[in-house]
Amino acid sequence: MAKKAMIEREKKRQRMVKQYAAKRAALKEIAEDENRPREERFKAQLKLADLPRNSSATRLHNRCQLTGRPHAYHRKLKMSRIALRELGYQGHIPGLVKSSW
Prior knowledge:
The protein has 101 residues and is mainly α. It has 2 domains: 1-61, Helix Hairpins (Orthogonal Bundle), CATH 1.10.287; 62-101, CATH 4.10.830.10. The protein has helices at residues 4-32, 38-50, 81-90, and strands at residues 73-74, 79-80. It has a two-stranded antiparallel ribbon.
């Protein structure tokens, strides 16, 4: 199980990304628009840099919803391989069976 502080930090980042998403998108659009004056684009880049770092979507990290584990994460199921295996053994995931040969 991951530390509770790490899980809470990730939740905080998700809230910040959602909160600043519209503002970031607007500033990025201005900064990347070649038709605008260079000074206006530069000001938009400075405003973008002034936003909190954790409001950037690239700082998010996928974590297992059950255990908080950051590694071996299955995007489709939103859980780690270990949690998936345990739920499979208990029969909670339909169609998943233990392989043997």
